[in-house]
Specification:
By secondary structure, this protein is an alpha+beta fold. It contains 2 helices and 10 strands; from the N terminus they run H-H-E-E-E-E-E-E-E-E-E-E. The chain binds copper (II) ion (CU).
Length: 164
Amino acid sequence: MRAFFIASLILLAACGAPSTAPASERAAEQAAAAQLEVRDAWAAPTPSGVEVAAGYLTIVNATANADRLVAISTPRAARAEAHEMSMDGGVMRMRAVEGGLAVPAGETVTLAPGGLHLMFFEVTQPFTDGESIPVTLRFERAGEIAVSMPVRRAAASTAEHTGH
Ligand SMILES: [Cu+2]
């Protein structure tokens, strides 16, 4: 009888003890506290009279959740889209990324000349060297992130946007 009582106590103690989360769970909690980060944003200058402009940046997703860039806006253009480049019969073409730009958990997505980029349409006034373009990025999970895109020339600038 006494032995049974002690065994019950031990069982109760085991159930009531604060559980120590396994390392993987703790890592997930830390990742959940991490933020989606946008860095190295910049935009290319546009010649006078040109109504489209391109912007570039790096999205670092240190969180445990996949995210998605679903909308881009700026007071400097009527609309903006995330674009991807693809080869089509030997011709480089660009098109809007369908359904938003995916930013997988734990990954970094780089938008750079010749690849993924932000495209601004109906620019209200040309982007000029030295100014900064305020841009709001809206992510599915992280919400809105405001970035300032300094306008500068790319080191190896190409005329990849003459197609518009
Ligand atoms: Cu484009």
